[in-house]
Hints:
This protein has 5 helices and 14 strands. By secondary structure, the protein is an alpha+beta fold. Strands 9, 10, 11, 12, 13 and 14 form a 6-stranded mixed sheet that branches. Strands 2-8-7-4-5 form a 5-stranded mixed sheet, with helices on one face. A 3-stranded antiparallel sheet has the order 1-3-6. A hairpin with an 8-residue loop joins strand 4 (about 130-135) and strand 5. Helix 4 packs parallel to helix 5. The termini are far apart.
Amino acid sequence: RDLSTPTASRGKKQWMCRFMFFEMLLERFGYVLHDFCMILTDCWYGFRMFWQVLYVFWHVFWHVFWYVFWYVFWYVFWYVELYSFMQQTLSDIQLRPIYDQLQIKRGASIPAEQLSFLATGKMGEALAGIPIYLYYSGQRITNNQVYTNNSGAVSYSLNRLNSSNAKEYLQANVNMVALVSEATEDSFVRKLLAKLSGAEARIEIEIVKPLIFIESIENNMGVAMNTEPLSNAYKQAFIDQGFAISRNKETADYVLKIDAQTRASTDQGRFRTAALDAHIELLRTTGELLYDKQIQGFMGMQLDHVKAGEDAYKKLAAEINKRYFREMRRQVFE
């Protein structure tokens, strides 16, 4: 076709417009493609960085995990082995008392020969160097963490049995704290193993009431008193504290001697006064003196000397319950 014609010119312009529109589309598509490629590039770098961080994290986690796993595994394995060893060792230790039961008078001492335990193995062989913890139910005792000797024996002595109960006991246990301390220095393992229970043995102690025989001379102005207030005061105090009163001196364990006299003292106006002197002794039936008390000039006042002497006896009897009997009890029986 001839392009010089008006129709040809109009077609050329349409073609040019289409070309320019297509060129603009390609240019826009290039920009979009470029942006998309940049986004993909940034994603790729981000993805690589993520995997690098993940790799580092996994590497560290894996090493830490295996380190902790093997540490815990060997720690638990070692603890289980030690626990089994301690259980086996404890099952092989047997404790038994030399005397199962004792009858002891209150206030008496118990020698170490009677309070003895023996530690043996499965075959009955004596075990030396076993740590033993001793517990006495009557009171707190000292030096009660001991070791068995070469004969496998351990002993303890009580200087004075002062309990008011009818029965007490001395118990021996394998000292787990000392035994575990020798096995390991780990404080955590010590606490766990210390909960194991070892062998134990017990000596039952039956406390027998001591028998008291009272000899009393109580005179008021040279005349023997019928009521014997001092003797009665001591008798009631002994009974209240778990003692028994004997009528026979031969069967008694202790003898209480009272020697009391009143004498006239200085008058005060129309009132008469009397002074009471008393000597109190507590002895064993063997003659051993345990307690000695001199009381001088305990005063009484009434309208005549006889009644004043009775008043002095009454006041001293009340003082016996408050002071003198407690003093004797602490000195002899505690």
